[in-house]
Amino acid sequence: MGVVNATPDSFSDGGEHFAAPDAVAHGRRLIAEGADLLDVGGESTRPGAAPVPVEEELRRVLPVVRALAPLAPVSIDTRHAEVAAAALDAGAAIVNDVSAFADPAMAALVARRGVECVLMHMRGEPATMQDDPRYGDVVAEVSAFLESRAKAAEAAGVRHEKILVDPGLGFGKSFEHNVDLLRALPRLARLGWPLLVGSSRKSFVGRLLDDGTGLPGPRQRLEGDLALALHAATSGAAVVRVHDVAPTVRALRVMDRITGRMPLWTR
Length: 267
Ligand code: HH2
Known about the structure:
10 helices; six-stranded parallel sheet; binds 6-hydroxymethylpterin-diphosphate; two-stranded parallel ribbon; alpha/beta
């Protein structure tokens, strides 16, 4: 899953693809690089981000979804049912909700449209989620949350096979919580729904790369991102959400050839 942020303030790409034509060009590039699907978002959920009015979110994402949906499956990254509904009308095929259906209208919408959805774990709201997050057992609590939200979605009419779950790395988690969740990915992949993992360019990747010479910024974390994408895939994740599609596809291809999921030689 390649990330297309139609936002002025994303932590990872800082508004580089904010204007619709830039976001569309970026999405086309990610498809050419081998992305199987694109995640289009119009509201940054980075720590400290303020919510965006629905009208503004719609204005940002709809032209981008409309242009990219004929080219590849598009997921709409939103917490708002109104935005999700309009994006589905514009051609999106998947609803990626970092609040796991906190908007009560979301489950009914996804059920009615028969589309796929991603349910992600987040502690609190983006504006405050990194203020000293605490858990007794982060893996147990995130697992229980994902299981209960997925079952609630099924009770609301979303078919089991339409649901993916996501531990929400970086969303209301300390460095240690993120590492615990990364170590537990094989367990999370066996919860009963396909697993999506989004670690790309997040600050804990910078800390994992730390060699004492200063923390690398979001765009200097590629080697860490590749290591974690391979770790997620070998742990059983079905989808990895990444900013740097070309190197990730190349790394996954090497792994698939070693594990036998892809032929050693292609002509
Ligand atoms: N991470 C971000 C946004 N959406 N969706 C899912 N399912 N999983 C994630 O881990 C995830 C997500 C944050 O990354 P990014 O889009 O690069 O930043 P921002 O929220 O600042 O736009």
